[in-house]
Every structure is written in structure tokens, then in C-alpha cells.
Amino acid sequence: MSYKLSERSLSRLVGLHPALSFAVTEAIRVTPVDFGVIEGVRTIERQRELVETGKSKTLDSYHLYGLAVDLVPYIDGRYRWDDDTAFSAVAGAMKQVIDTHGLKIDWGWELWQWDKPHWQMTGMKTVYDVRRLEAAV
Ligand SMILES: [Zn+2]
């Protein structure tokens, strides 16, 4: 069984760092469990909303830079936010792709022991910060 990203999931890859969207489009080909892309690039307004409702812990999220993506298992027509086994299966697919292609992408669960949907390009934000500051001068 091989899965495909829905149009909705594909639309949520727009604006992401190419290595991150590549990892997701490769992972869907090898995952044993279907998944959907819940969120990619975020606006600062959206980020504020998530912090205020306790769903995020930072206003300087990697999502703002196109350096993070959230993936959730999708089984029998429903997202499975509480299915740890399914999350592990999706993570296995992502890691397979990350290892095969030598990508620098980390899993939220391994960074913080929470946030299983979250994958990010740790460290890359520094580069983007510098560019943003340069552009502002
Ligand atoms: Zn996230």
C-alpha cells in the first residue's frame, strides 16, 4: 500500500524550505500509515493565537520561517492525534527519508518530549534571522 498526499496537504507545503517539503513528499511514499499535513508556514497572527490557547510555547516558531511542518496520521477518514503507534510509524518514514538523504530535520517529540506532529530544521532559523535583519537595514 502506497499513499499520496491530498491536494489540501500539498497546498500546506507551499512556502516551506525545499528540503522539508521534499522530506514530506518522499515520506508519504514509504510510510506504512497514511498521514496529512496539518500546518506548514504560519503567520505571526496565527502563532499568537496558538500561544494564547496553549497550543504552542513560543512566538518565534520555526513555522514562521517555513522551517517546520506538522504531520498527523490519517486512518479511516480521521486524523489520529492520540495514536502513538501511528505517530511512530509516520516518524519512521520521515527518519528513513532524512537518513537516506542526509537532511537536517528534527522531530518535536525527540526535541521536547511533546509535539509529535512537529518536524523542524533546527538551526536554520539563524540564517533566516540574519537575512531578515539585513533586509531591514
Ligand atoms: Zn509544528
Give a short overview.
With 137 residues, this protein is an alpha+beta fold. The chain has helices spanning 7-11, 18-30, 44-52, 84-101, 108-112, 124-136; strands spanning 35-39, 68-75, 78-79, 106-107, 118-120. It has a single domain, classed as Muramoyl-pentapeptide Carboxypeptidase, domain 2 (2-Layer Sandwich), CATH 3.30.1380.
- Output the radius of gyration: 15 Å
- Count of DSSP strands: 5
In whole angstroms, the N-to-C terminal distance is: 52 Å
Counted by DSSP, the helix tally is 6
Percent of residues in helices: 40-55%
- Mean pLDDT reading: 92
- What is the number of independent domains? 1
Task: Please provide a written account of the structure.
The protein is of the alpha+beta class and 137 residues long. The protein has a single domain (7-136), classed as Muramoyl-pentapeptide Carboxypeptidase, domain 2 (2-Layer Sandwich). Helix content is 46%, strand content 15%. The chain has 6 helices and 5 strands, in the order H-H-E-H-E-E-H-E-H-E-H. Strands 1, 2, 3, 4 and 5 form a 5-stranded antiparallel beta sheet that branches. Bound molecules: zinc ion. Zinc ion (ZN) binds at residues 63, 68, 70, 118.
List the helices and strands and how they pair.
Elements (H helix, E strand, L loop, with lengths): L6 H5 L6 H13 L4 E5 L4 H9 L15 E8 L2 E2 L4 H18 L4 E2 H5 L5 E3 L3 H13 L1
Antiparallel strand pairs: 1-2, 2-3, 2-5, 4-5
This protein binds zinc ion.
Quick tags:
137 residues; alpha+beta; Muramoyl-pentapeptide Carboxypeptidase, domain 2; 5-stranded antiparallel beta sheet; binds zinc ion
